[in-house]
């Protein structure tokens, strides 16, 4: 195991991170003072700016995107199977979904590698932002040219904040996803020129979805972790990696010194990070960890909520220390919990069992065209396979993300 030191309380505001911060304290104070005056003088116009702009943006999002420009220049996506659109197809891993019945409700009934019968929440998000195509899986691009002008997807199923999770499953660690992003940016510069590339990157939304596999596909099944760390301690480790992913600033942690890239240094200024879902409510988790009960596993949900709380506070301190950054946490815990606990009120009829196979455990290779019991109509199921929501549940999640994500585009 890696020798982590929990006592070294991570101070994100450490001056290692950002020496320019302390230098500009005076300037900052002046700015704050100016802002106060400005605020008093323009109270009303500010009020409208703060509250009307998001509303207008929302109207634009919902009503008027089909023939307009997208609301942001590009969408770049990082993370795990919640957002992987086919990068794992190219890898020697068992964590794949590029065969039927995956994708049976997708365009042309194509199994793309998405862990879903149809669209992912991030696909709906791309549509809501006004894009006419989805960010392509970076590894699948035959020609890495014009098709990345509007973004790319670097996500890899079974990846997580903890690089070792991805390594266990031969997936692409987040650190490697950043290397791919760097490479992608170089291509963008070649295709569009330096200044267009820079404005594309700073204006783009960067969507991050990770942490799920760190728990489900690593911590809970890996005695090297769960006998050594409590779930809370493991969450702390994940937070260090998360903060490093946004901006590497923990030089005193030797094990993380290999971290070379981070989103902020690569120019990302608009970042949305999804929370953990109610991990204890996914069908396979109930089967595997629920000790013969048919209800959500309370322990796993507690771990998820605890992680989400830390995610919020870590993000808040990143925000305090990284000038120009817009960073929002996109909550999928509550909306998914609502669907699971009150399916019929939300137009669903099955939440315990997934559509694919028996619906109790199957995912990846175990959910295939010969699986017995696969449902006829997935739109009534909250879950498509043992771990992943159906397209119709993803639609509900994506609709909920609009409100939270508004501040990223305004
Ligand atoms: C780069 O930006 C300029 C000015 O906005 C524009 O005229 C040009 O077409 C852009 N180039 C590419 C390749 O997108
Ligand atoms: C953290 O939670 C608070 C309270 O819900 C919320 O207002 C804030 O926006 C959250 N922070 C981030 C970075 O999303
Ligand atoms: C599937 O179920 C939904 C919701 O009940 C319904 O609207 C739809 O028509 C059904 N589709 C098929 C092919 O039966």
Automatic annotation (TrEMBL):
Cited Gene3D superfamilies: SGNH hydrolase
Spans through the membrane: 47-65
Molecular function GO labels: hydrolase activity, acting on ester bonds
UniProt KW keywords: Membrane, Transmembrane, Transmembrane helix
Keyword Thylakoid: no
PROSITE patterns documented for this protein: MIP
InterPro entries, per database record: GDSL, GDSL_lipolytic_enzyme, MIP_CS, SGNH_hydro_sf, SGNH_plant_lipase-like
Family the entry assigns: Belongs to the 'GDSL' lipolytic enzyme family.
Protein known as: GDSL esterase/lipase
Organism the protein comes from: Arachis hypogaea
């Amino acid at each position: 195991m890696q020798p982590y030191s929990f006592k070294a309380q991570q101070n994100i505001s450490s001056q290692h991170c950002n020496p320019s911060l302390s230098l500009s304290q005076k300037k900052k104070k002046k700015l704050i003072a100016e802002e106060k005056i400005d605020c008093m003088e323009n109270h009303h116009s500010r009020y409208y700016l703060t509250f009307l702009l998001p509303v207008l943006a929302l109207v634009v999002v919902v009503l008027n995107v089909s023939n307009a420009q997208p609301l942001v220049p590009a969408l770049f996506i990082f993370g795990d199977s919640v957002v992987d659109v086919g990068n794992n197809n190219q890898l020697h891993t068992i964590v794949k979904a590029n065969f039927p019945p995956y994708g049976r409700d997708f365009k042309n009934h194509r199994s793309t590698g998405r862990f879903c019968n149809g669209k992912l929440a991030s696909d709906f998000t791309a549509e809501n932002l006004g894009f006419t195509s989805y960010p392509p899986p970076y590894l699948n691009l035959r020609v890495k040219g014009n098709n990345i002008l509007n973004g790319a997807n670097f996500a890899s199923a079974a990846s997580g904040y903890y690089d070792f999770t991805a390594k266990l499953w031969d997936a692409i660690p987040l650190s490697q996803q950043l290397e791919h992003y760097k490479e992608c940016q170089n291509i963008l510069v070649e295709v569009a020129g330096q200044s267009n590339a820079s404005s594309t990157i700073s204006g783009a939304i960067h969507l991050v979805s990770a942490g799920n596999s760190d728990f489900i596909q690593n911590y809970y099944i890996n005695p090297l972790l769960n006998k050594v760390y409590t779930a809370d301690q493991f969450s702390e480790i994940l937070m260090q990696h998360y903060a490093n992913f946004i901006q590497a600033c923990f030089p005193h942690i030797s094990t993380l010194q290999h971290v070379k890239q981070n989103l902020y240094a690569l120019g990302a200024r608009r970042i949305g990070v999804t929370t953990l879902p109610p991990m204890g409510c996914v069908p396979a988790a109930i089967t595997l960890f629920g000790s013969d009960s048919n209800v959500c596993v309370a322990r796993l949900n507690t771990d998820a909520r605890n992680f989400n709380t830390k995610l919020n506070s870590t993000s808040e301190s990143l925000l305090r220390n990284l000038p120009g950054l817009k960073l929002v946490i996109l909550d999928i815990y509550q909306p998914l919990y609502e669907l699971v606990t009150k399916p019929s009120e939300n137009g669903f009829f099955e939440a315990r069992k997934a559509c694919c196979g028996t619906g109790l455990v199957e995912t990846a290779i175990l959910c295939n065209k010969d699986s017995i019991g696969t449902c006829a109509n997935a739109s009534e199921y909250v879950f498509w396979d043992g771990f992943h929501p159906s397209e119709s549940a993803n639609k509900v999640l994506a609709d909920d993300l609009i409100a939270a994500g508004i501040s990223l585009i305004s």
